[in-house]
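Crash report, auto-generated. Payload:
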Amino acid sequence: MTSQAMGHRVLVLGAGVLLLGSLGVGAASATSSTDNTCVEVTTYDHPRYDHPTSSPTSSSSTTTTTTTTTSGGLPPITIPGGPTITIPSITLPPVSAPSDTLQDGGGQTSSPLTGSSPVDSGDAGPATPPGDSGVQELRADDPAPGSGDDDSDLDEGPNSLTTTDRGEGYDSGYDYDGYRGPRGSYGGVSCYYNYSVGHYWYDHRPVGEVRATQVKRVPSGGVDTGN
Amino acid sequence: MAVAEKDPDTKKTTGPSMTNISIFLIVVLVLVALIAGANSGSSGPNSPPPLPASAPTKVTVPSISAESSLVPTGLQADDSLEVPPVSQPMQASWFDQSPTPGEVGPSVILGHVNGGGQPGIFVKLKDVVAGAQVFVDRADGQRAVFEVSRVETIPKDSFPTDAVYNDTANPQLRLITCGGDYDRGARSYLSNVIVYADFVEVQRV
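Recovered output after restart:
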């Protein structure tokens, strides 16, 4: 087998590996909030997103998003004995709700198990995402860590809106930050993560480690409704 | 032999073709995975927008033929939930420190399982199953429709305070009554039946 043929096989194998990895990302983003360990504590639109009155337009082809896409290009693939292949960034076509456009651009896309947050190896202390000074302080009106300012596909420019622009600061991509996985030695689960799709953001935290603020006063104990 | 004399350029033309195919495959698969992940995520975007605050006026659980007006109740001196008078077991109440039904957060509605020797409004609450609908009429003329996600019977001494009262991403509803074994000495049930429901629709009353 020539080195070039071997290189082609390696490339095809790489495609398969990427397939499995990317499917893993998809599955991770679909993590439900209905399990007994993690609870989806906040969901919010981008504050400047202007909801359309009819079905959302399927285009978000602003200069900003295009520029962002190029910054998120895939690293070149080097095949032993073969040519170096540079894969350009991928621009995904627009999709309907919940997000208007999915792009692989500025947003980080990573598996929860390989997230950038430290893994809590102890039994007592919860894992804390970087930059998060206190998990229990995260509230619906607090932007999630990494959810905005450091996302390069935010249109922060002074330009006025176009017919397809969702507003300056509109996050058109997918992002993920946090950790969900085994915790300590007793089988608990850490689930400190948040992700976004389009203009929606989802924050997840473990049940029992989230304060109740929507209920103004939390009762103590059970309810006595029978005798 | 002619067979042995292959055109040396043949492989050169095959290589780029396979490379392009591989790149195309990668792009398509990543695209499919991302779209699948986006569409199978939380139900947040598929739920109706949350409603503004408006006092609830009536609760209806068609699957158990329960229907009652709602009165606001708060907390007792010991911080336990106040409940409707036991002399009116068919009266349900809304915990007025919780969001109104349709607002973001867990709205809490209480009802007796029995009282004064008579069955209460939620005597059959334990028979509610996932997928059942619960209607809550509001003072603003809107009806918040909820769909039951799960039903639990939990001992009162391990009441799931977090699951019931913690913040939620969307409007949710909790229906709570007594259940489980009955302690005749304490004249009290030992457990609570808790119905968790998600906001799925808005109707005009």
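Post-recovery validation: Chain A touches chain B through 70 residues (CB under 8 Å).
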